[in-house]
Amino acid sequence: MFQAGSGRCRAKIAIVLNATLAYVKPMSRLTAKLVLLLLSCILIAACSPAPQSGKPAGADFVLQGPNGTVDSKNYRGKLMLVFFGYVHCPDVCPTSLVAMNEVLNGMTPEERTNIQPILISVDPERDTPESLKNYAAYFHPSLIGVTGTPEQIATLAKAFGAGYIKQPTRLDGSYAVDHSANTYLVGKNGKLLATLPYGAPADELRAAIRAAL
Questions:
Q1: Is the pTM here over 0.85, yes or no?
Q2: Domain limits at 101?
Q3: Fewest Cβ atoms closer than 10 Å to its Cβ: which of 66, 136, 148, 154?
Q4: Could you tell me if residue 52 is inside a domain?
Q5: Is residue 186 domain-resident?
Q6: pLDDT in tens, 23-34
Q7: Least confident stretch, 5-14, 46-55, 143-152
Q8: Cα–Cα dist 95/167, whole Å
């Protein structure tokens, strides 16, 4: 059995390809290339990690916020609205966070006390707790921006089913980060309840949140 992504797996690929090369030499050049290409694809697929099954479940986190450590377990009994974004985001983040503000402001004060919005940075290289604090303040007073190590953010994003990728650095040193635009509704027990799609009407989002309160 090949071990996904391991050195042993790569070594076995080399052994199999070398053995196959000796066999295909008598064939025509085109046929030999096709055989090797097909075999390479099969072996690489065998060494690739198996896709995760089931729906994302979310995960607890301990990240850095404007006033120190932010532990998601401290929000048990409340809903969390989790969004993955970053301070220098030119369009998707402002649009999504303005929509979040509209949704929250359309709820009663009592309802809002049971909801904690969280912005998790997908740009931990640049985003600091202070810059996230200033950024979050533009959108809603209860929004908390948090960051962590690149490894922490990658693990957490995967748990929520979010994706992001840093784009090549421009000549001026700036760069963009392409990322998912959904908002994740986390239940009072800390489990992911729903993925709220980007661009959904505020009334629909508000109804989904109210159903979970």
A1: no
A2: 62-212
A3: 154
A4: no
A5: yes
A6: 444 555 544 444
A7: 5-14
A8: 20
